[in-house]
Amino acid sequence: MKKTIFALLGTALLAGIYSFIPHTAKKEVATYSVSTEKSRIDWVAAKKTAYHTGFFPLKSGEVQLDDNKLKGGKFVIDLANLKVTDAGGGDRLTGHLKTPDFFDVAKFGEATYEITGVNYTSDNTADINGTLTLKGASFPIKLTANIRGVDEKNFFAQAFFSLDRTTIGINFNGPAKDVQLAVHLFASK
């Protein structure tokens, strides 16, 4: 009889204590779709006497957020619709960039970037590791993103970095090997 009473009292005590422990429901990872109208990758390539500017539009993509923190994502870059924006480059440079010397858009009209890891270094800054697949080959690309805005409906981040184009298989013997890139990524639920 004493054992039964102690067992009931113990159960009641544990149930009472458990009822005061706050229950934090784990939010599910949220998927946001990339806004292809607002997102793009700007580039600047310089040579001894001039520079050229342009951008790659994004074709599609998504990011995953866990408690408003970036956890992953994948993007499709529309190489076939790349744009040269400086007057000195124009249609001639656009055409050359689309050839096998550079992006070979007849065979490879798209590239992808998939996030493989995210490490926040502050509330609004994250080191991102990912894989760029371009012209049938994959390359590791690390960048630092500035998270400009995030809430339950929208996400906006930017990354500015330099890239030696020969490290991603673009080996045309031209003067501009170092390319400056600016990624502008908008996504929403």
UniProtKB/TrEMBL annotation:
Gene3D superfamilies: Lipid/polyisoprenoid-binding, YceI-like (2.40.128.110). SMART domains: YceI. It comes from the Bacteria. InterPro entries: Lipid/polyisoprenoid-bd_YceI, TTHA0802/YceI-like_sf. Pfam families: YceI (PF04264). Residues 31-188 form the Lipid/polyisoprenoid-binding YceI-like domain. This is Polyisoprenoid-binding protein YceI.
